[in-house]
Hints:
The complex is a heterodimer of chains A (256) and B (309). Chain A has 256 residues and is mainly alpha-helical. Chain A has helices at residues 5-27, 57-62, 108-111, 176-183, 185-193, 215-218, and strands at 85-86, 92-93, 163-164, 170-171, 199-201, 210-212. Chain A has a domain at 50-202. Chain A has six helices and six strands; from the N terminus they run ααββαββααββα. In chain A, helix 4 (176-183) crosses helix 5. The longest helix of chain A has 23 residues, at 5-27. Chain A is elongated, with a radius of gyration of 33 Å. The termini of chain A are far apart. The relative contact order of chain A is 0.14. Chain B has 309 residues and is α+β, with helices and mostly antiparallel strands. Chain B has a domain at 107-265: 2-Layer Sandwich (Alpha-Beta Plaits), CATH 3.30.70. Chain B has helices at 12-33, 39-42, 45-48, 58-76, 107-115, 171-175, 201-205, 249-252, 259-263, 280-287, and strands at 81-83, 93-98, 128-133, 157-162, 181-183, 189-191, 212-213, 228-230, 242-243, 269-273, 289-291, 303-307. A four-stranded mixed beta sheet of chain B has the order 10-2-12-11. Chain B has a two-stranded parallel sheet with strand order 1-8. In chain B, strands 3-4 form a two-stranded antiparallel sheet. The mean pLDDT of chain B is 90. At the A-B interface, helix 1, helix 5 and strand 5 of A face helix 1, helix 5, helix 9, strand 10 and helix 10 of B.
Amino acid sequence: MNGDPKARNVLALLTALFLALAVGFALVPAQPGAPVRVPIVPRSALAIAPMTVRISAAQLVKSGGDVSGLDCYACHHKESPPEIKSDAAHRIVLPREHTDLILGMRNCAECHPPSDPVKLDYDDSGNVIVPKAHKGLVSMAHGRNFRNENCYNCHDRDQLDQLHTPDGEKLKFEQATLLCASCHGPTYRDWLAGAHGRTAGYWDRSAGPIDRQECASCHDPHAPAFTGLIPMPGPHLLHPLPKGQPAPSKPDDHAL
Amino acid sequence: MPFDTEEDGMSRRSFLRTSTVLSAGVAAVAAGLAPLRKLGEFTSVDQFLQKYYKELTPQEMKTVLERIETEVQRQYGVRPHVRDYKPMNGVEYVYALNLTRCVGCRKCVHACVAENNQSRNPEIQYIRVLKMPNDGTFDMDKGDHNYAPKSVPEPGFFFMPVQCHQCKNPPCVKVCPVKATWQEPDGITVIDYNWCIGCRYCEAACPYFARRFNFASPSIPSEQLNTNMSYLGNRPRYKGVVEKCHFCIQRSRVGRYPACVEVCPTGSRKFGNILDPKSEVSYILKNKRVLVLKAELGTLPRFFYYFDI
């Protein structure tokens, strides 16, 4: 070291600085910024199980489930098929009892034994007065107009526990897919080829079975169009959205 | 180091000064290197010296898989089953996505995260669902991935999920300086997470925004860890490596559908072997109107969008 006092001062300063740094590194731990909390999506929200939507009559019959609730003649009399009622605009008035009874696993016969047929009450305009227990069950929206809402387009007037195609072929409930196919031919063709509908299981048929769903397993035959779904949360926003944009939904909203 | 030369030997003053400077320097260097002490938690000698995936003999691979199982068990408290699935003969995977049916519910995104042990925080997702204006464009820049309406689909928009397209001519593979990513015979482009140096060239090269980088150590809740793991697929990644969709290699290579296919509530996602003329993807490519994203780039994706009608 030379005797230059300036250099000596600089060296002393540097020494003090390094010492302070060493002490600082040793004592003060690194302080990362406040952690960003990304909500964890619960497993239940994913529901990879294939049948998340509904159980169709066909599935129930094929799986050997309880089909006693499917007895049409628990309510109706065989010799007098029910009349279809229309309102002033010629729209069909659907009995509320005929929402998808299987959907909620409701069984008519639990409350309505076949020996005691239901008597329907009508209001002044001829519509069925819906019992409180059946409120909020109905949906009838097959197609974009109301022309296809006539029950007997698909259900057989004389055999209520059967279906029939427009050209008169009689089908059982578990053959409902063929009934859909009688109008929706291209979609049926796609479905047969595997290009329409949900798939699960094995793409390699030699390794295991493929799990396919029939029409009515996903679509409610009385209102086949899908209603909206709540979207699951998008990518986490590391910065707040500009004003006016809605906040993303929370993962708890998504349990199916 | 120059010493005072006025006296023979060392003066008390110069000794003190020199030793102070020296000890300060040593202390500063030691403090600077202190973070390296934690390195032991992240790496081991075996991991550091591990060979390239393609050079590992079956016996060495077995040792590596066991080591990874132990590492994962130490970190998550669950012993996983890590395997090295090999491509099947006569199989080339192709993915088809029905843009007419997709409603943008993002279930595929989260099924993928759960299946493939992606980091939850910081968040890594392989699939990005874009809300696109329904005006005939397929310009990804016009898409919005932060959409959050009360209910999807929204009128006036269509939804286009984008993930790794498993290109036949992958730009990401070309740019990798260490060959840590390559295309397998069944068409899946994979990454050796132990060989990746984290330069992110591949991320920049991908025109589909498919690759993700682990800026921090991934965090996954132990109870959500998928213990069915594959070496090239969903084993937990390290900080500083790139990852991406691999068609659920741990599922597809045993003949199963990827998680995103199984979870899709609208059946928009189709997957299969294009070399099998009876597979659903063969039917779709033969009979449907099919679109390839950014076809002008010549990447030849194995991921096709199609339409009904």
